[in-house]
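Appendix B. Chain record.
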Amino acid sequence: MAKQVHIRLDDAVYEALADYNVKANSSVQDSISSAIVYFLSRQSRETMPVGADFTFIDLFAGIGGMRIAYEKAGGHCVYSNEWNKYSQQTYFANFGEQPDGDITKVYEYSIPDHDILVAGFPCQPFSIAGVSKKQSLGRATGFEDKTQGTLFFDICRILKAKRPKAFMLENVKNLCSHDRGRTFKVITEALDELDYEIFYQVLDGQNFVPQHRERILIVGFDRKRYGNDIDFSFDLTPRDPKPVMRDILEDEVDSRYTLSDKLWEYLQAYAAKHKAAGNGFGYGIADPDGISRTLSARYYKDGSEILIAQEGKNPRRLTPRECARLQGFPDDFKIPVSDTQAYKQFGNSVVVPLMANVAQLVTDKMVALDARATEKAKPDRERRPDRLTKSSKRAINQSVEMAVV
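Structure tokens predicted for this chain:
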């Protein structure tokens, strides 16, 4: 709900603002609101919280699921980027910071230094036309040629410019097979060319939330900083007991979430048609003591993939708050947008506790690698004070002999 605020401006400020509004085709209200949001966002980024152990940036941030995960691991977010205006609205409501917009227009060197880059980037095919032409001419090709025109390219240029100690990328599990495996091949080659040691695995969120949701995570560590001897494993710690659907359901739900007779009849007929054809398409009634199907961004259309049975009436779809819980967001996470936008946002988000588990593994490994690098950088005498060099032993023996004489 919007609030009204009356402000006084000096004539010079007002005239400058009016001139800006004409050039930007903006209203006074929008310009002032944007300026306030910008100021608050900058304050949030520049104020390092007490106890923060490392810094990170949040790219393709959505509504901040990755941010919650890395803040829980002890990190401080120094930059965020998300183009969708509704997601920006939710992000600001929860973190007091509005992410930057179009990542393709952001100068990579303007991004603050950071320890870890975090990104849930879109899956896009890579054009090989330019690469093939260069190869036919015998010219070398690099990640710039292979990834140009995709949003993954923007991740690469930021990695190259800022060289964070580590990164974590998230994507749909089909990334490995996308475009007959070419997409994933280009991604791994580009990250290797940037001199990062990478590790990846498809992980299922059902051990952290009551939802079958598989996603691939790609983790990388800087070989220029840590050398080639780097190991990492996704040793997760699942929740015990395993969460079930009834854990996330609200006690009282508004009747507007109950399916209409027309929609319910359509879904049943649709399912029967495909069942007769031997297909598995259709709605899904979630088992209260089990897990659900994957929540998708299309859930706002009819909610058919995850329905909740109701005694004596049609099933209902999940509420936005239940969708938030299904993704592992805390109950104090604010939902300032419409139900339609909320369904899209949570359907596009990540399983927060799973990401938090991996975030802790990544930061633990980074700390261990930092300690090893520091130890290697020490002079030999500092690293092994119990061991004396031959020259030191000779010097001591000579001192003893002189003292005896």
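Further analysis of this model is presented in Appendix C.
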